User: Which sequence fits this backbone?
C-alpha cells in the first residue's frame, strides 16, 4: 500500500483517517494495549488487550473498530478490510 498520508497525520475531518500500527502502549505489569486513534480528534476509537503478538490481534482490533463506529465509516475512509 502506498504512503497516502505522506506523513501528514494532522487531519481536520473526524473519522476520515484512523491510525494504528504495531506499536503498543504498556500498562500494569508489562501488559500491552493496541489501539486505533482518530487523526483529527486524537481520540482513541477502540483498543485491544492482546495476550500474544500473533496475527489475530489485527483481526480483533479491526472487528472492535467496526463495532466502535457502528459499521458506519466516513465516506472518504479507505478500508482494507
Assistant:
Amino acid at each position: 500500500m502506498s504512503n497516502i498520508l505522506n506523513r501528514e497525520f494532522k487531519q481536520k475531518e473526524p473519522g476520515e483517517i484512523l491510525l494504528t500500527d504495531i506499536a503498543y502502549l504498556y500498562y500494569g505489569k508489562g501488559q500491552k494495549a493496541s489501539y486505533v486513534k482518530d487523526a483529527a480528534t486524537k481520540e482513541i476509537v477502540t483498543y485491544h488487550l492482546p495476550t500474544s503478538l500473533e496475527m489475530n490481534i489485527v483481526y480483533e482490533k479491526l472487528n472492535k473498530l467496526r463495532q466502535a463506529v457502528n459499521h458506519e465509516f466516513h465516506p472518504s475512509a479507505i478500508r482494507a478490510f
